[in-house]
Structures are given as C-alpha cells and as structure tokens.
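Hi U.,

Before I forget, here's the chain from the pilot set. I'm dumping it here mostly so it's searchable later in email.
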Amino acid sequence: MTATRIDGKAFAARLRERVGARALEFAEATGRKPGLAVVLVGENAASEVYVRAKGKACVAANMESFEHRLPADTSAQDLLALVERLNADPAVDGILVQLPLPEHLDEQAIIAAISPDKDVDGFHVINAGRLSVGQEGFVPCTPMGCMMLLTDRLGDLSGLDAVVIGRSNIVGKPMAQLLLDANATVTIAHSRTKDLAAVVRRADIVVAAVGRPQMIGKDWLKEGATVIDVGINRLPPEPGADKGRLVGDVAFDEASEVAGAITPVPGGVGPMTIAVLLRNTLVAAYRNAGLDMPEGL
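Structure:
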C-alpha cells in the first residue's frame, strides 16, 4: 500500500480564498475590514517569522493587520494595559499574543486578560471550557486544521478509533475533544502510556503531536490508518549543509507503506494553522458585528 498524501498546503489555500471572499462581504456590510492584532514581545527569531507571515496573510485575505512590537523588558503591567486597549478597540476582532513570552511574563495571566470573544488562538480558559461542554467558542488553530483535513479525507468519523499522541493544551487536549465531538472513540497517549506502540497500532486515526522526530514508524501503524503529523522537528545538518531538514513525528517514507493517508512535513498541518487563524478572525468579526455567519467556513 502507498498512502495518499494529504495536501494541507492546497487545502489551506482554498480556505484562505474563501475567507478572503467573505472578508470582502463583511467590509461591504460594515464599512470596515476584519482586524487582527498581533503582539510580539522581544526579538525571538522564530516568532518574528511567524508574525510577518501572519501579517502578510491578513492583507492577502482582505483583513487589517495591527502589529504591536514591544521590547523584551516590557513589564506585565504595560502588556496587560495594551491587551485591555485592544479588547476595547472596535476595529480589532482578534487578538494574538505571540508565544513564547520573555521569562518574566506570566503567559497564562496574559492569555486570561484577552477577551474570550477576541481570543482567536483559542487558548483562553473560557474557550477551552466552551469546547469541553460543546458550546460555541474559539478552538486552537492547529487542532481545528487537523479536523478539517480529517473530515475532508474521511467524511463521517463516527465509531472510528482515534489515538492522539500528546496531551498539550494547545494541540493534544483540544484535538481529542474535537474527535470526541465527531463521535470517534478517542485515546490520549503520552510519555507515560504503557506499550505506546500497541496503543497506536489499533487506531484508524493517528494524530502525532509529541515533538520527537520520526518517532512513529510503520510498525506502529494499523494498515490503512489515516495519519496526521503535527510535529515539526529539525534534524542536525548533514555535512556541508547550513541547517538540517524539517521532519515530523512520523517517519514519513516508511509510514507511507502502511498508512492509507498521511500528511507530509512540511506542507501538511503547518499551512492550516495560519489559514484557520484567519478563519477564526473572520468568525470573530461577524460575531462582534452581530451578523449571521456565512456558510462554507
């Protein structure tokens, strides 16, 4: 068996196109574009790249991008004051504080200060609670993107056996909840799981979000399983290379011999995260304006 390659890059491009079209409709109805505010504290190189990408994506999707760049020694009081101003700004529909923050800042306290109705990252404890009890709220972008890819590939997930490897608040836990809501039978596996390979081997759906390069090989997989690889890991550089190549948590080539479908790294889940962030911002804009949500998002 050779697995079907799940093209997250192409799916994300289609989603961004739909979001851009609906953003134009929103602007025509309200006289303003949906707005996303991104706050970056300090000079983390990876965060700089992400913030630039998000800004460009906003503009391409017919949205306003508001960037706030603060020095690394910004106090908690000043950062909280900025968040409160953004909460009150009617031009801002979504607020994203780029993580990680400098060590002297309490990430949970900052996230808690964001209005849940503008928390397009879906990290606020109120949105986590809404997800857990089946209420409408914002879901973290990466697991929502994974669900979109899964339902596009498999349709109805009812009764399927799903294993999520990883229990983070950002991916693992919300991913498991989304699968439960789709009527899958869900196991959350982690570093303390006994005979992890055997647990994974029984799954129709495997979502790998553990952060260990190429940990999951073909011997871990049930024949025909659908594999969503959330991991992004950089291997040591080969001789003569400036940097190592990016790989996922799954050994893609050998897993493809057993799996029915699999996401590549890069080009799988990664592009979905920003696309869903734009989608969440558009949803926030419609809700904040009291307008009915358009279909197709």
